[in-house]
Every structure is written in C-alpha cells, then in structure tokens.
Amino acid sequence: MLEGKVVRASETELKDRLVSVNRVTKVTKGGRTFGFAAIVVVGNENGVVGHGLGKSKEVAEAVTKAIEDAKKSLVRVPIHRGTIPHEIAGKFGGARVFLKPASLGTGVIAGGAMRAVLESAGVKDVLAKSKGSSNPHNVVKATVQALAALRTPQEIARIRGIQLDKVFNG
C-alpha cells in the first residue's frame, strides 16, 4: 500500500461487488467439512477502491467478512476525464495486468475480476489485459496494486518541473 493514498471507509458510500466464491473442503476423520471463501471488491465509483477475502462455513457470512476486510484496504485512484492518467502494469503472484487509458466512450474493456475492480474504482474508459494466472484473487490484487501506483497529472507536472497543460501535449 502506498503512503498517503489510504482512505478511511467512513468518508465514502461504498458499493460492493462479489468477484468469486470458492467452495473449499477440509477432510477430517469424521468426513468432509465444507466451507466458503469469498473475494469482494468495494468502491465508491469515484476514485476509491479496496478488496477483501472472507472465509466461513456459510456463503453469506463469508461475503460479509470479505466486505469488512475490503473496507480496511481502500486506496485512492487518480481518475482523469473518466480514464486513468497513464499506462501501467501490475503484478501479484502469477497474475500480470496491463492498463491503458482509453478515449471517451470506449467503456471498460476488461474481463471478470479486473472489470469488477475498475468499475468499483469509477474508471469509465480503459483498455485492460490480464496475462499469466487468471486466479481471481491474484488478478484483483494485481489490478489494485497497479491502480494504487498511478500518479495524477499534477504530480507528474510537479516532478518534471513543467506546467500541467504540457504534460499531455508536451
């Protein structure tokens, strides 16, 4: 997690999206015990997103735990004109993701787990590609990691020592 980008859950009205539910089995002397692991993405669709994992014997309880976990890992995402400010790649475990800004009206061109993260963050137009592992847990973490590493146009202008209008046209 990047310093200064962490957000408190109380500031925002968060919407949750269920990414996946996985049934897991524990084999014991008395037979099989079934449980569930849920991956959830929460966001306010205006630049704040987080992810969480919840485990329980019941699906509903696993989802509730995942939502509570997701509220603890919120990050702020810089959104510029409905898209991301620049290209970025992210990785977590075997999952590799690539995000590229898109022009107005393109929509979210992304699959499954990445789509849930991008829509929860409030990104309206983006081109995204998932490479390597398609494990939803790792794809979600790689996508959030990439979004958290984005820099605003103002930050880039300050670092380069140029005016803001020259960042995109220079």
Description:
The protein has 170 residues and is an alpha+beta fold. It has 5 helices and 8 strands, in the order E-E-E-H-E-E-E-E-H-E-H-H-H. A 4-stranded antiparallel β-sheet has the order 1-2-3-4. The protein has a 4-stranded mixed β-sheet with strand order 5-6-8-7. A hairpin with a 2-residue loop joins strand 1 and strand 2.
**What is the total tally of β strands?**
8
Q: Number of helix segments? A: 5
Shape: elongated
| Oligomer class | single chain
C-alpha end-to-end distance: 31 Å
Physical arrangement of strands within the biggest beta sheet? 1-2-3-4
Helix coverage percent of residues? 25-40%
Strand content: 25-35%
> How do the SSEs run, as a string of H and E?
EEEHEEEEHEHHH
- Unreliable stretches (pLDDT < 50, length at least 5) are none
Mean pLDDT: 89
Radius of gyration: 18 Å
Characterize the main sheet. 4 strands, antiparallel
Quick structural gist:
The protein is of the alpha+beta class and 170 residues long.
Note the topology.
Layout: E1 15-28, E2 31-43, E3 48-56, H1 59-70, E4 75-76, E5 88-92, E6 95-101, E7 108-109, H2 112-121, E8 126-132, H3 136-148, H4 153-160, H5 165-169
Parallel strand pairs: 7-8
Antiparallel strand pairs: 1-2, 2-3, 3-4, 5-6, 6-8
